[in-house]
């Protein structure tokens, strides 16, 4: 097989009678970075879980350096040099960074763990990655972006020949992405093979050699990246032309719905004041760690406020808990949908029902099964959730469909204000456009939409007005006419002078 490192031939896989992979082929060379692309639900993650031993294949063959392999579990794949970095974090929050990196491969001294050696080796990996982090830190105390970097360090510590990266940059800052790409190129130059899954198509030119595109569990096309334009890739992924990536609509701004005055909540939320109007999408821009997520959590009552006032339709209200906010007609679509937005071991129906139990019970407090089924079916249909049925377990949905379920359970309540925190992170271009269209429909109904995104192009494309955060403060406001990447970046780096 010459330079071929990985060859997957005619791989098929079914779940509960639904065929999700249909004779898929994939080839990866030594010293090559291959982008595996496709919409959510195309089969990318399933194919990679088979390669890494998490799932067993129903049919097909896998070769590593020409050797036929049959992986029964992830340990067998790791022993052959296959490592995977999952889209969603798999860290043990109560363990240190080094303990997570060496989990299952602990360094022993007699009958005891050699913490000193593990800490030192983990610190070297982190330093090589250019990460400002101590190996002794507790994983649960890290930000999402830092946890992602620990996952990367964990995979690199295994000295893998094949490194699978599933949306590795979705939670990283520009600097962290640059550091990651530097490491990936180093690994490629050492002859390792990288399979890179990403929906951030603008990244591909900077890092990828070849592409392989899946759609509906089947191969569509493969080839050198320079043979494709971004429009070509999108067309092959979705099977149609995407005419407008950011289908923003114009609505007349209505009356003020929400007003926040001098909100304070710890070091990341300092004297925040703004208003949100009917039929408006208010974008929130800023760099990683600017305090945007912390602001929404304080506003919604997840985190404690130290001071400030909140008004809904001109009347001061208290949002000391999420329950308060929900009863007032607010909804939060959180940054981490799996951790904070879904009960992943429950079905789609159960997730949709949970925040709406008060509206699907009768006067005696007994739940109406018929009403519950109708609400879940209507939500699945209206949001085009791709699932076998309403009883499908939520963790088995693609990222885009999980996000639709998170959104759908709140839309049942007809909220007046929706706080979207990174709603399109880790989902494909087709699902992104569907989320934008939902935002447009809410806008037309007079709902106030607060929209946080780390993708500047997305904020510019969908927002009517943009607030810029830096260092826990609002450092500027831009109208749609004033907003451009340069102006946003200037305001997003307007730090206070500390000396």
TrEMBL record:
Pfam families named in the record: ABC_tran
Protein name: ABC transporter domain-containing protein
Keyword tags: ATP-binding, Cell membrane, Membrane, Nucleotide-binding, Repeat, Sugar transport, Translocase, Transport
Keyword Ubl conjugation: no
SMART domains for this protein: AAA (SM00382)
Gene Ontology BP terms: monosaccharide transmembrane transport
Localization per Swiss-Prot or TrEMBL: Cell inner membrane; Cell membrane
